[in-house]
Amino acid sequence: MRPPLGEDQAGKLAPKKTLHLIGPGQVGRAFLRQLQTRQPETLRLVAVSDRSGTVFQREGLVVDEIVTHKHRGGSLSECGGAETIPTELAIRLVSADIVVDATPSKSEDVEAAVLRGRTALQCGASLALCSKNGLAEAAAEWLAPATRKRVLVNAVLGGTGAQLLAELDELQRECQGLALVGNVTTTAIITAIEGGASIEEGIGEARRLGFLEPDATLDLDGSDAATKLLCVWSALFGSTFTKSPGLASVKREDVRDLDPAALRERTSRGATTRLIARGGRSGTELRVAFDEVALGSPLAVPADRVAYGYELPSGLRVHTGLGVGYERTAQALWADVNAKLQETQQ
Ligand SMILES: NC(=O)c1ccc[n+]([C@@H]2O[C@H](COP(=O)([O-])OP(=O)(O)OC[C@H]3O[C@@H](n4cnc5c(N)ncnc54)[C@H](OP(=O)(O)O)[C@@H]3O)[C@@H](O)[C@H]2O)c1
Hints:
Elements: E1 17-22, H1 26-38, E2 43-49, E3 54-56, H2 63-71, H3 87-94, E4 98-101, H4 110-122, E5 126-129, H5 133-142, E6 151-152, H6 161-166, H7 168-174, E7 177-181, H8 184-194, H9 199-208, H10 217-220, H11 223-237, E8 251-252, H12 260-268, E9 271-280, E10 287-294, E11 306-312, E12 315-321, H13 325-345
Parallel strand pairs: 1-2, 1-4, 4-5, 5-6, 8-10
Antiparallel strand pairs: 2-3, 7-9, 7-11, 9-10, 11-12
Helix pairs in contact: 1-2, 1-13, 3-4, 4-5, 5-11, 8-9
The chain binds NADP nicotinamide-adenine-dinucleotide phosphate.
């Protein structure tokens, strides 16, 4: 029988893993609240970085104080002893066992995101992500055999990332194409429009449900779905020797250009619409479009989940995930971190 969490075979307390959180925003704070609730005995939060700086305490930070300070709109640089140094330097100096990156997924910040992830991996850390831009650019590099076991992407892909990594070798060999319904915001908007709402009312509903990205444009213009496509495409078909295709290479449709009448016409025929991100091995035809989907299709998921479809010789394999919205995204992150802790217990 395995000893209880936190104790080794001799009944002594196991050494704690250290964790550095980058980005105490909505998801980051929800993740910290999970830590508070679960109180894992084998994990110690030693550093948190925001845009202004890093707080670091080798013996462990007081989670509650940080959550409250950030919730009130404070900057970490205002906290006693904070270091106002670049985040990648903080990652190197702290050198935690696990780095969680919960920073925004803006395309203009890709280089900084890649640098942060690369630094964490070079320092020997496990890298748990919910931000997507770094992975979209560097998935082939980070998921190469040398570092794959230390890259955790469950939360990036709506809670399906752990399944993807578990099947990565097979999917890299067998998968011919991708059909991903990864953006729940557009699913919520479509559902509202199908029920009679205007596009603006649909967007309002998605906002009410808490689905909109900090920068809503990323959801509305298809960039979020395209970034997730690039993450998966690069993980399966990318190579460390060639550059990632990049966001500009993905053709995208904007939800604000939809024709509500055309969507309702599809429902009158027993079909529905989903924003589907598609791409094949060659990477020449990457696109994100509002496609018609049969109501019984595994891709016709409701707005509380994502569906990642992998075209295999045996048919379409679909991974479904519930990691949507900031609370569930934080849970998907926690699942990754917890799996890492369990691994080191074995
Ligand atoms: N919200 C959701 O429902 C959801 C769902 C799935 C995935 N995601 C992804 O999760 C990530 C975080 O989303 P969020 O809603 O939590 O964003 P958010 O509320 O805007 O928080 C982002 C945090 O990152 C920090 N940050 C930005 N640049 C940084 C840098 N260079 N170094 C250190 N910290 C930095 C910000 O610092 P300041 O506090 O100083 O501004 C802020 O604390 C995004 O990539 C998003 O795409 C979000």
